[in-house]
Design a protein that fits this description.
This protein is an all-alpha fold. The chain is built from 17 helices and no strands. Helix 4 packs across helix 11 and helix 8 crosses helix 12. The longest helix is centred in the middle third of the chain and has 69 residues. The protein is globular, with a radius of gyration of 23 Å. It starts with a helix and ends with a helix.
């Protein structure tokens, strides 16, 4: 608790340091304020949709089980909202300040953008820990923390799906009309959807990603605490708590270290990578000392596997979404968009092999050392340095926004060159962050499944039982159906956006000549309404599926459902994230002047790939992580209700 309070003080210190910096001239300040207003407006509209659902659930749980479950649910939802909102509020203020700092040099811009990301990263971890502590203090029950996790999962799904639909509707619309039809550059102020696109970066990749990893963080801790308490009593419980504490301490020290190096940095990627590795190593050193102190060395080895595999997944993701792989993909654009789509699809499918193998190895070693508790603890280890890894991830959208503001404000080309170099690193860190999120989701889902198995008293099943097979069959289908819903949502919302952009360009001739400004607010409203209207059905699907399967096939069917959804969901999420990331970076590689550069046939082909990949990597793929975890935590809550009745 004291460490959490100290971390909050450090977060506030970072926030004030950012706000002390200049937001630039009147134009950059005005653009930043428009983005802030649009992002806040969307979040508040989103809250109006899902908070009534959460309150209804809270009342239901109070009547059926008791007030403690309702309190736990509301704490989980509220803290998750606070983490996303506060982190995004600072991110939307750090963007223009990063732009203006870029007029002084790369190091200054890196320091501010990373500081903005650090506020997001540390807020998620700190509020996650404080929320868990408060929930445990109020309920006096480890099991009831599942309701806290359920509240966080609800917010995560709405934030990820809603934010993902918003950002990709704006991005796809801006690309189709702005780049392909009107041949406008990236972030050109003449593009009516350009502000909506910048708003989307924040509601999707900052608030959405923050809620996603908040849910993973608390879910992994919950499952590890429960299994540790069951198999090893207080010793297991304390081990999880100490690993989490070590991770937070290491993240804070790593962030301070990175900020110190940032000002003098000429290589942002190297600076951020060293800071992340430093935090991971420090966590392992502290865990080793603790393991030796309590004479339980297996704790160290399990956490080591979690941290190490998490790092390797990030590096493999980087390999598939940058470097020679992306250059080869970009070259296929010389033959047309069809070749780009085919090659990018194959790349994403291929990437599932190595990442799945790594997850398998981590699970095998962790299980052999500490059983199911070891698997859960490996997940905690992977997420232990979330404070700095999410900081690196959240820094990307800030740098992206900074580049857009520089372009729209008409600042000198040198500023845009600096922000583009930061954004290029941000694309890579974002891809690595998505790979990291998928790996942690797989371990967390497996640990949650173990909790479900314990609550439902299902330790073994007959393979000939048709309900197990039917549950697995339906579970394997759900990530595909869920992805179809979210992809349709992006496509439909993007259609509305495209029509509006075309209307403005046609009816306001002065837009393309720069004599008249587009109606940015209209595009923001279209993206907001499109996302809010289309995020409901996917969210309902995730919650109702375990309930309907339980009613139809019993607990065995729910077990099959979780197995099928996790297996197909993890594969689909890896494929979508890496295909989408590779298509995005292939387009950027061409825009750097390769294979004909901007405006060429190859460029237009890679823009098509990037447009297809946008909902892959930023809407459907990341949302699957939450789908499989929310289904697992819903199943656990369902079993506690059934057992209570």
């Amino acid at each position: 608790m004291y460490l959490g309070i100290f971390s909050l003080i450090f977060i506030i210190f970072l926030a004030f340091r950012i706000l002390e910096q200049s937001s630039g001239n009147e134009k950059t300040t005005q653009l930043s304020e428009i983005i802030q207003k649009g992002a806040k407006s969307f979040l508040f509209q989103e809250y109006k949709v899902f908070f009534p659902v959460i309150f209804i659930l809270a009342v239901f749980f109070w009547i059926i089980i008791g007030y403690k479950t309702s309190v736990a649910l509301l704490i989980g939802a509220t803290f998750s909202v606070l983490a996303g909102y506060f982190g995004m509020s600072i991110a939307t203020r750090a963007n223009a300040r990063t732009t203006w700092a870029a007029t002084k040099g790369l190091g200054e811009a890196l320091k501010i953008s990373f500081s903005g990301g650090a506020v997001m990263g540390l807020t998620v971890v700190t509020l996650g820990i404080l929320g868990l502590a408060i929930t445990y203090y109020v309920t006096k029950s480890v099991e009831l923390i599942s309701y806290y996790s359920l509240g966080a999962s609800f917010v995560a799904l709405f934030a990820r799906v809603g934010g993902g639909i918003y950002t990709k509707a704006a991005d796809v619309g801006a690309d189709i009309v702005g780049k392909t039809e009107a041949n406008l550059p990236e972030d050109d102020p003449r593009n009516p959807a350009v502000i909506a696109d910048n708003v989307g970066d924040n509601v999707g990749d900052v608030a959405g990603m923050g809620a996603d990893l908040y849910e993973s963080f608390v879910g992994s801790i919950f499952s590890a605490i429960v299994l540790g308490s069951i198999f090893f009593g207080e010793k297991g419980f304390k081990s999880v708590v100490f690993v989490v504490i070590f991770g937070l301490i290491s993240s804070i020290i790593g962030i301070i270290y990175t900020l110190g190096k940032a000002v003098r940095s000429n290589d942002p990627a190297k600076t951020l990578r060293i800071g992340t590795i430093f935090s991971g190593v420090l966590t392992l050193v502290l865990t080793l000392l603790y393991s030796l102190y309590v004479n339980w060395l297996n704790i160290f080895f399990v956490v080591f596997f979690g941290v190490f595999v998490g790092l390797l997944i990030g590096l493999i993701t980087e390999w598939y979404t940058s470097g020679k792989k992306v250059q080869k993909l970009a070259k296929t654009g010389m033959m047309g968009p069809a070749n780009v789509i085919i090659s990018g699809t194959a790349l994403g499918m291929e990437s599932t092999f190595a990442i799945t193998l790594l997850i398998t190895i981590a699970v095998i070693f962790a299980y052999k050392l500490l059983g199911l508790f070891g698997v859960a603890l490996a997940g905690v280890g992977m997420l232990s340095t979330l404070g700095i890894s999410l900081s690196v991830d959240a820094y990307g959208p800030i740098a992206d926004n900074a580049g857009g503001i520089a372009q729209m404000a008409g600042l000198e080309p040198k500023v845009r060159e600096i922000t583009d170099s930061l954004d290029a690193v941000g694309n890579t860190t974002a891809a690595m962050g998505k790979g990291f999120a998928i790996g942690s989701a797989a371990l967390t889902a497996l640990a949650l499944f173990a909790n479900f198995s314990n609550l439902s008293n299902i330790t073994s099943v007959e393979l000939s039982n048709p309900y197990l097979f039917l549950g697995a069959l339906i579970g394997g289908m759900l990530p595909f159906f869920f992805s179809a819903l979210t992809m349709h949502a992006v496509g439909d919302a993007a259609d509305d956006m495209v029509r509006e952009i075309r209307r403005q360009i046609k009816e306001i001739p002065g837009i393309l000549t720069g004599k008249q400004s587009p109606d940015y607010q209209k595009c923001i409203q279209i993206a907001t309404k499109g996302a809010l209207k289309r995020m409901i059905l996917p969210a309902i699907l995730a919650v109702l599926s375990p309930v309907l399967i339980y009613v139809s096939f019993g607990a065995v069917g729910v077990g099959g459902l979780l197995i099928g959804a996790t297996v197909s969901g993890v594969m689909l999420a890896i494929f979508m994230a890496n295909s989408g990331g590779a298509w995005d970076n292939a387009k950027k590689f061409v825009e750097e002047g390769n294979f004909g550069g901007k405006g060429s046939f190859t460029h237009k082909a890679t823009v098509v790939g990037d447009t297809v990949g946008d909902p892959y990597k930023d809407t459907s793929g990341p949302s699957i992580n939450i789908l499989i975890k929310l289904m697992a935590i819903t199943s656990i809550v369902l079993m506690t209700i059934v057992r209570g009745l």
